[in-house]
Amino acid sequence: MHEAAHSGATDHPLLSSISVDRRPHELHFQCQLRSSSTALLTDHRIFGTSVLPAAAYLELALAAADRLLGATPASGAIISDAAFQDLLAVKGDDAVVLRVRIRRDGGDRARFHIESAPAPLAPLPAWRLHAQGAVEHAAGPLESGVDGSDGPPDRATAGEAFYRRAAHGPFQWGPTHRVVQSIVRAGHCLNYELRRVSMPTAPTHDFEGWLTAPLLDGCLQVPAMEHCGESADRASVPTRIDRAWFAPAGSHEVRVRCRPRERSDDSGDVLTIDLTAHGRSGEAVAIMRGVRFQSITRGAFEAAVSARRPSNSSKPAGAARTELRAELEAAAAADRPAVLSAFIERQVADLLKLKDPDPTTLQRGFFSIGLDSLLAIELQFRIQKALGFTLPPGSGLKFERIESLSAYLLNDVLALGG
User: Fold this and answer.
1) Cα-only R_g, the chain
2) Which of 56, 101, 239, 380 has CA atoms 20 to 30 A from the CA of 134?
3) pLDDT, tens digit, 9 for 90 and up, residues 27-36
């Protein structure tokens, strides 16, 4: 059953239609994106290609949670374990349908998945997973944010100078994304100011009333540029946020404090930061912990975009009906992630020679439990054999956790996630 999104303070311009799923406590939202007409894409490019910013996924999750759980309370909302998978890149005149699925997960908590498929939709679309995580109503803000700086300012940069420098790197930000007014560096700590943004994307909708995606994007642009030393051939993009608190939706001028964490593992992250955004009156607007970035080269980016050009095929060519695939197809949709994750867990335990492994151990990142690149390739071969088709190159290397790999296989490859 489909209905137009009700107009009101919690409407979001990218959640233009809503379908009530047959299963209880779940909502699906859809809209069509085209790089030539969607401002979020028009003004946000990586290596010249329109890419939906990671911050937009956070805002979509908050907006969808408002519709499912009720309006965000004064105590705010928390997003946890937000993982960003494939970049949503739209080239030329291509169009995609963006889908947000959100399902209640007990009390005031929900799980979200954000996916896309080529437009117009095929009868059985091959949905591609871009982001997932959990969102819940908060009892209050996270205990603390980033406080103070590392000492007196040692460098100040005006927003205009920041964007002039950025223009020579991988990111091309148009007017609606140019929200940085000034940056002050004090030791390892960054302090920067962002301006208020209102960005129309449709005749009857705009972002007024929301902590806008460009505003959030500004929070993530600066540390990536300042700490990672971007070049014309390499970009650092966010891949995960451990935990983030957001005040109720509102349009703000904010000051941000950001501090990088010390490197403490071999996960491959090039940068992990914590940041706090304050309004002009000193009120907390957002607190983010464990924002992780990974580096991508121009060649790898272009290869990934080319390999993932839209295709309306509803299933992989030449896919065989294996025992595991038959089990997944027979299972209820809500049970499929557990079925596939259990299979992957068994393979990982076997590859690492783990006898009766603690489940919490397998839930940690692949690198942290010792799954190196050679073992990851072997894992990919085993998954291919069990599912009956060939996966894209590097599929066993690009995901940090079993849950993320399982979600990618169900949603992007098998089209069995929704």
Assistant:
1) 21
2) 380
3) 888 888 888 7
Tell me whether the CATH fold assigned to 2-142 matches the one assigned to 155-302.
yes
**Main-chain phi, psi angles of 405, to 5 degrees:** -65, -45
Give the per-residue pLDDT at 141: 67
Q: Map 87-143 to HEC letters.
A: CCEECCCCEEEEEEEEEECCCCEEEEEEEEEECCCCCCCCCEEEEEEEEEECCCCCC
Could you tell me what percent of the chain has a pLDDT over 70?
Answer: 76
Please tell me the predicted confidence (pLDDT) of residue 275.
92
At 160, give phi and psi (nearest 5°). -60, -40
- State percent of the chain over pLDDT 90: 15
Query: In this structure, which CATH number among 3.10.129.120, 2.60.40.10, 1.10.510.10, 1.10.1200.10 belongs to the domain 155-302?
Result: 3.10.129.120
Helix (H) or strand (E) holding 293: strand 284-297
Q: Is 223 in contact with 258 (CB distance < 8 Å)?
A: yes
Of the candidates 248, 302, 324, 257, the one whose C-alpha atom is nearest the C-alpha of residue 70 is 248
Per-residue DSSP letters for 339-361?
HHHHHHHHHHHHHTT-SS--HHH
Q: State both tokens at 1.
A: 């059953």
Query: Residue 414 contacts by C-beta under 8 Å, 6 or more apart in sequence?
Result: 315, 316, 325, 328, 387
pLDDT value of residue 245: 93
Q: In what order do the strands lie in the sheet with 89-90?
A: 89-90, 49-51, 44-46, 171-173
Joined together, the tokens standing for residue 51 give 């890419």
Superfamily of domain 323-413: ACP-like (1.10.1200.10)
pTM: 0.70
Say yes or no: domain 2-142 is CATH 3.10.129.10. yes
Tell me: pLDDT of 7 over 50. Answer: no
Domain ranges within the chain, ordered by starting residue: 2-142, 155-302, 323-413
pLDDT band at 322 (very low <50, low <70, confident <90, very high): confident
